[in-house]
Amino acid sequence: MASNDNIPTANVQGTGSAAQATSPIKDYMESVVSYIPIEAVTVYLAYASLLAIGPQLSQAQTSPDGFMKAVGLTSLQQGMSVWGFIVFWLGSGLWELLMDGRGLYRSLLTTFAFAAWAYTLGGPFLIWGWYNPTLASAAILAVSFFLPMIASIPAKLTTKDWIDHHHNWDPDFVRSH
């Protein structure tokens, strides 16, 4: 991803050949992005670049509690950033639902993953004064850790073997309630 090119990487030796290991934060961001349609990621990054909000991050005001707020943005930039985020946030879920046909549950997970990923970029969260780099890193780590577990829940709940193993499975009780 273009927005994460400044994250340092380190070369490590693998067994028999040299392997490249990336920083943990970049790996976690890629894990979260795997839940988001690549079309949404690509277009949102292009859209954010078009608005030229990224350079404003270095000029943002930081409050005593560590949250940052963008300064020097025009009303048009602010509005387009906020509405662009909302459109792409909802659009990523709709894309997953309508174009990829993955179902409503996966679509909801996609919108959640998109919001967490977009938070790391700043965008409207920087405009609203809700952006905190430490919180952004913690959020992307938590989402990348918990999202795969949450995504597997429906499959686990519908697998009779899993239910038999983890619960006192009583088909008559289930049918009667």
Task: Explain the layout of strands and helices.
Layout: E1 9-13, E2 18-22, H1 24-33, H2 38-51, E3 61-62, E4 68-69, H3 75-99, H4 104-121, H5 123-128, H6 133-151, H7 153-157, H8 160-166, H9 171-176
Antiparallel strand pairs: 1-2, 3-4
Helix pairs in contact: 1-6, 2-3, 3-4, 4-6
What do you see in this structure?
This protein has 177 residues and is mostly helical. It has one domain (25-176). It is 62% helix and 8% strand. It has helices spanning 24-33, 38-51, 75-99, 104-121, 123-128, 133-151, 153-157, 160-166, 171-176, and strands at 9-13, 18-22, 61-62, 68-69. It has a two-stranded antiparallel sheet. Helix 1 (24-33) packs across helix 6 (133-151) and helix 3 (75-99) packs antiparallel against helix 4. It is globular, with a radius of gyration of 20 Å. Residues 1-21 have low confidence and may be disordered.
